Amino acid sequence: MADNQTVQAYIDAWTHSIESISELVAPLAEGQWNRATECPGWSVRDVVSHVIGMELELLGDPRPIHSLPRDLRHVTSEFTRYCEVQVDTRRCHTAPEMTAELEYTIIRRARGLRTAKTKPDDEVRWPMGPYTRQLPYHQVLRQRAFDVWVHEQDLRRALGLPGHLDSPGALIARDVLVEGLAKAVAKQAGAPAGSTVVVDVHGAVEFIRTVRVDSAGRGTVEERVPVAPAVQLATDWETYARLACGRIRPESAEVKIEGDEALGRRILENFSVTP
């Protein structure tokens, strides 16, 4: 069970990241909104549109009635189609329109979070297209803090303005991404039963985690480091986050592999844990 202190920590992390996004885009010239990001098919404008759209849906605003063009190659599933509607409706919006809507959305959402009577474990709607479901309030807030931090970093890389790799949102992102390690290693990469895989991350956020695969092929994540793992992967925090969020391919990432290189490469091919 989560408590109010945990909920407030998630809200604080979300606030830090979404206000940082607002500060990043406020001075942008019109042309800078069209810069490509590492999100397939999305520009700076599109990433901000996605952030706005998700927050408006959590506020309970109706979704736009909008038909998508047929030539959007990055729209490959019902989930990406769901996300694209909020994005495509804003592709004709000017820079002032985008910044004004973002600022007003932040004000509305912050007020709603501040006055909410929702308890940490109360079930609330999590709008994710075909994956829409009811989740505990604290999980929804955690996921929004994670998502907004990831998109802040998308924008920072696109604009050449690095920062906040060690912010409160970054620490939440670490925890969310580490939770996906067991599935990536044991199920998706097929690490053999009885093996261990160590992931060593340095930089702004540092941690070492071990995935231990049991006799049934199930993986668990632990902090204890074995003497002789089957493979050890070492990289920096930003690279880890970009890989785990599907922003870059393994061949573009600087990752040191020690031990079973074939297994290591198979793990990196299946490293992304985000939809």
Task: Give a short summary of the structure.
This protein has 275 residues and is of the alpha+beta class. It has helices spanning 4-25, 44-58, 78-88, 95-115, 137-159, 168-179, 181-188, 237-244, 261-269; strands spanning 123-126, 133-136, 196-202, 207-213, 219-222, 231-236, 256-259.
Number of strands: 7
CATH architecture descriptor name of the largest domain: Up-down Bundle
Q: Any idea what the CATH superfamily of the largest domain is called? A: dinb family like domain
Largest sheet: 5 strands, mixed
Rg calculated over all Cα atoms? 19 Å
Structural class by sheet pairing and helices:
alpha+beta
Characterization of this structure:
With 275 residues, the protein is an alpha+beta fold. A hairpin with a 5-residue loop joins strand 4 and strand 5. It contains 9 helices and 7 strands. Helix 1 runs antiparallel to helix 4. The mean pLDDT is 96. The protein has 2 domains: 159 residues, dinb family like domain (Four Helix Bundle (Hemerythrin (Met), subunit A), Up-down Bundle); 90 residues, SCP2 sterol-binding domain (Nonspecific Lipid-transfer Protein, Chain A, 2-Layer Sandwich). The strands form 2 sheets. The chain has a 5-stranded mixed beta sheet with strand order 5-4-3-6-7. The protein has a two-stranded antiparallel sheet with strand order 1-2. Keywords: Isomerase, Pyruvate. One of its GO terms (molecular function) is isomerase activity. This is Maleylpyruvate isomerase family mycothiol-dependent enzyme. It comes from Peterkaempfera bronchialis.
Task: Record keyword descriptors for this entry.
5-stranded mixed beta sheet, two-stranded antiparallel sheet, 47% helix, alpha+beta, 13% strand, 2 domains, 275 residues, Nonspecific Lipid-transfer Protein, Chain A, 7 strands
